[in-house]
Amino acid sequence: MRLWSLHPQYLDAKGLVALWREALLAQAVLNGQTRGYRQHPQLWRFERCTVPAMQVAGYLQAVYAEAQRRGYRFDAQKIGAVARLEPMPVTRGQLEYERRHLMAKLAIRQPALLEALQDEDRPAPHPLFHLVEGPVEAWEVPSRG
Length: 145
Hints:
This protein is mainly α. The protein is built from five helices and two strands. It is globular.
């Protein structure tokens, strides 16, 4: 499961669809609708919020907006209720880690998108996050290789 801290605009089609599915899974986990993934590190930052399920629904709204912008047909009815969202911090180190991680994926899947992301020296975070100084987040599980 990867719930990107990067803005969804940087993802290729495969990445955006995967993010939608994984965020829906995260929503189900936080709503107690599934037994799997309950201890997944990607959920820890959402679990610290006042209402985690609403927070991940807010995350999904931004993914949905990017899909709409591209003309994709994601089902907005799958997004849970959202009342008040808490801006969530993400460290510059985490954003840079994810940028490198995504660039490795794009090098294989979409080299044209890789070039655009390489030129982006300060990539935007997902709209739910606000950038703070710091290293890679403690919950991140570094990829091997």
